[in-house]
Amino acid sequence: MLDYSSLLLAAALSGTCLSITMFAIWFTAPQARFVLTVACGILVLVAHVVLFWHYARHPSPWLCQIVLALLSLGFLTLCLSAMQYLGVRDYRRAILPTVAAMAVCAGATSLGLDGVGFIVTYATVTALLSLIGVMFWIKGGHDRRILLVVSFLSGVCAMSFVLCGAVLLVEGQWVLGVAPDNWAERLNSVVAVACMTGLGALTLSLHHLQAQIELKAETMTDPLTGLMNRRALTAFYGERVFGPFMSVAMFDLDHFKKTNDVFGHPVGDQVLRRFAAVIRKYARTGVDAFRLGGEEFVLVMSRMTEEKAYDIASKISVAFGTEVVATQLGPLRSTVSGGIGFGGTGGTSLDHVLAEADAALYAAKRAGRNRVVAQKTSKADAPALRSA
Question: What CDD domains would the database entry show (predicted)?
Fold first, then answer.
């Protein structure tokens, strides 16, 4: 027969080690805030286990309320850490019901119905664990194998709390006076230790996975404008075949070197960010924006006719012409030239389409700048674009 006190102490020891590990990870990577939240949640659960062990030896109504409150608070904190990791910002849908359940529990135990308090708390924890499992299964967009295990462990742990509450409910134990001690409680202690250990290990895996994703995003993002860079363009489209409904628009800011020489590089950087903001407005599904470097930008357009692609590129140029940057020398307006290359019926490579767009861009510059040229559609003589 398993010794109940030993199970509780094992759970406390396991939780303490996990919490210390999580805090150590967070100290080395402060940006991983969800790890800190996990550590705090586990620490709250450790406090619950220790006080529950003390409550089992010396029952007290006030201690009972604290024990149950810590159990709900600990799993609420773990649920919030899952929301942090998955980017779910609506914390209220977890916090408000949990606080309401804690209030009901406190009211029941203050009336002497501590058994009802335990049932309500077990139901609350079950709901929180179920929410964690569902969120990871639905919202997770990374390694589905890890997310499946997280959902499974959360579900198993939730079922162990369901059994604890079911035993009290079936036996009609509305008033206990002491800590519940039955087969379900003992099973819950074993399952909780195993699941918490597993979830702790998975937290490390998720942290490592998130770090890899963030590093990859950094290497593919232009730090000045926030747009994707040349590496991203090659990664996403380097192996793609450009068909007749795919095109590439290449943009080059007019007289940008002069802007830097006259107004200074800080103003030049501001102009680049302004153009990035304009081009980003047209980035959507099937339209991706990149900064190749310097004053060169690229827009890749998919599932779009040649006329529509030319229209979008022209609108970007016109919109940028309306942008005004305040400088010490007075307001600054800039223009941009663009060239468009198109995919072919038989399929064309990225390099070929870029070369065509580059040739069209130089045609726009030779024609006087501040215009978009689509070489394939014989628009090399396109007029200068009028700004509003």
Answer: GGDEF
Residue 381's pLDDT is what?
43
Q: Is residue 124 part of a domain?
A: yes
Q: At what angle do helices 92-110 and 61-86 cross, to 10 degrees?
A: 170
- What pLDDT, on the 0 to 100 scale, is given for residue 370? 93
Same domain, 183 and 298: no
pLDDT computed for residue 188 by the predictor: 85
The verdict on residue 222 lying in a domain is: no
Token pair recorded at residue 165:
């509450």
Structural domain of 310: 230-374
Residues of the chain with pLDDT below 50 are 1, 377-388
Measured CA to CA in angstroms, residue 283 lies from 10, 286, 289, 312, 354 at distances of 54, 8, 6, 10, 18
- Between CA 295 and CA 28 the distance in angstroms is 37
Least Cα distance to 108 among 75, 79, 80, 68 occurs for 68
Residues 113 and 44 in one domain: yes
Q: Is residue 224 part of a domain?
A: no
pLDDT of amino acid 64: 94
Q: What is the pTM of this model?
A: 0.60
In whole angstroms, what is the distance from residue 322 CA to residue 317 CA?
Answer: 9
